[in-house]
Every structure is written in structure tokens, then in C-alpha cells.
Amino acid sequence: MSKDPYQDKLTPEAFQVCRLAATEQPFSGEYNDHWLAGVYHCACCEKELFSSTDKFQSGCGWPSFSAAISPNVAYIEDDSLGMMRTEITCSTCDSHLGHVFDDGPQPTGKRYCVNSLSLQFSAL
Fold first, then answer.
1. Known catalytic residues?
2. What's the pTM value of the predicted model, to 2 decimals?
3. Domains and CATH numbers, the chain
């Protein structure tokens, strides 16, 4: 088995989240309570994923967005916890981001629940 090319770029914790689909502890992430204007990128390949204009306070403990920068996010059906969810990944490098739910604000009704460790931020 070959070494993942992102293993040397990421911290061990970020590698667990991004490449092995782990989940960081709620309310622990750098971007949970982060409100600067800018763009959130994939921590692995730096692809633009979310805009700060779509970020909202959901109270779930992870950064939440009402929309993704299309087509940079991929959607995968996930029944790993005995229930059907939709996993979101970077469409470029397949990095695990989190999950999307249908309980977000209008007009999209979506809540993209994202691990901070899977993101990098660049201010406008």
C-alpha cells in the first residue's frame, strides 16, 4: 500500500479527518466561531469549497454553511452509523469534509456541517 500524498502535509489529527473520515470533537475546531470575510479551501488540495457569505451559526459545534462552491464538493451516500446521511468530500482530492443535512436556512435549506481540520481559510 502506498503512502497517502497528503500525509506529510497534514497534522496527524487533520490526516485522520481528511483522509480517514474521522470527525473532530464538536466545538473544538478553529473555524466553528470564525466570522471573517473570505473563502474556505480544502486543507489538502486548496480547492475553494465554501464562502464566508454562506456561513451561519447552527449551534451544532462544527462550521456550518448553507451552500458550497459548486462543483467543488462531491456527495456520497453514507449509512455507516446505521442511518442514511450524505457525506461531503472535496471533488478534486476526495478529502472528507463532513456531511450535509436538509435542516439549514432558506433559500437552500441545506446545512453543510464541516470539520475545521478539513479547511484552510483565506481572508478577502
1. 113
2. 0.94
3. 12-123 (2.170.150.20)
